[in-house]
Design a protein that fits this description.
Layout: H1 9-16, E1 20-25, E2 30-35, H2 46-61, E3 67-72, E4 76-78, H3 83-86, H4 102-121, E5 126-130, E6 133-135, H5 137-144, E7 147-151, E8 155-157, H6 171-179, H7 181-190, E9 194-195, H8 196-201, E10 207-209, H9 214-226, H10 230-243, H11 248-263, H12 266-277
Parallel strand pairs: 2-3, 3-5, 4-6, 5-7, 6-8, 7-10
Antiparallel strand pairs: 1-2, 8-9
Helix pairs in contact: 2-4, 4-5, 5-6, 6-7, 10-11
Length: about 290
């Protein structure tokens, strides 16, 4: 006698389709997360955000992964939040925010904020490989990353003003810190596109390459970062993030504590030995 299991079409689709794909390069110690909703320009719906948050947690806790690349499938990095779902439905026609209530809307931000914080607070370096549009929350995801490499077709926009919304995914925190007050104000108040050349000139982008070289360039950067000493890099990222809210004296005290940890590490011994022996160090994260 066989047991019959009822599987709905929706559950089969959810099992078969991955909204965020993960590729791990175990030889070089990095992972690539790809937002995989190209038909909607990788806009963020609940399923994608949930998958994104889960995959970020996995790579954050996997010690064999030392760097992470985030990119988008198709012709966009991320076009922001799925406005249909944000307004309470996915069918045809407009949806009113009031249909699901203010409190449910507030709760709906939780997953998106989990993603932003998961990137920003991850102890490992996160590299954005930005292909095409990075708009609204997609722009904010790029802002949360440590290193940003863009294709020459990339464009950036804090699009919230166009639909009467507040930048609810970290923009009001990120933009002034990255661009300064005046440029941040222009981005938020005008909703104008920022082209890739300007983004590079403002220091937002580490590198701009042709579309066909984007992933290769990001992977080379990830390999270089992953080959470094994990403890020292982890502490450096943590100190840079927290140091933004510290005074200099406190930052120096924290730096002394961090340096004491690295001086006591096996990686430091390996680094010094490699320097004397004129060879590449092999850091183990000990």
């Amino acid at each position: 006698m066989t047991n019959k299991v009822l599987v709905t079409f929706e559950s089969v689709e959810a099992l078969m389709y991955s909204y965020v794909t993960k590729k791990v390069d175990s030889e070089h110690g990095f992972a690539t997360l790809t937002l995989n909703r190209p038909d909607r320009l990788n806009s963020l719906n609940h399923d994608l955000l949930r998958s994104f948050a889960e995959e970020l947690d996995v790579v954050a806790t996997d010690d064999s992964i030392r760097a992470v690349i985030i990119t988008g499938a198709g012709r966009a990095f991320c076009s922001g939040v799925d406005t249909d779902e944000l307004h309470g439905g996915t069918g045809e026609g407009p949806h009113k925010a009031g249909e699901i209530g203010t409190e449910n809307l507030r709760r709906g931000f939780k997953l998106a904020h989990e993603v932003i914080l998961g990137i920003y607070k991850m102890e490992k370096p996160v590299i954005a490989a930005i292909n095409g549009l990075a708009v609204g929350a997609g722009f904010d995801i790029a802002c949360a990353c440590d290193i940003r490499i863009a294709s020459n077709s990339a464009r950036f926009m804090a699009a919230y003003v166009h639909v009467g919304l507040f930048p609810g995914y970290g923009g009001t925190w990120f933009y002034p810190r990255i661009f300064g007050h005046s440029k941040a104000a222009e981005l938020m108040y005008s909703g104008n596109f920022m082209e890739v050349e300007e983004a590079k000139s403002l220091g937002f982008l580490n590198n701009v390459v042709v579309d066909s070289e984007l992933i290769t360039t990001a992977e080379k950067m990830a390999q270089r970062v992953a080959a470094g000493p994990p403890i020292a890099i982890r502490l450096a990222k943590t100190m840079m993030r927290r140091g933004m809210s510290m005074d200099l004296e406190t930052s120096l005290e924290m730096a002394a504590a961090a340096e004491s940890i690295t001086l006591s590490s096996e990686d430091h011994i390996e680094g010094m030995d490699a320097l004397r022996q004129r060879r590449r160090p092999e850091f183990k994260g000990n």
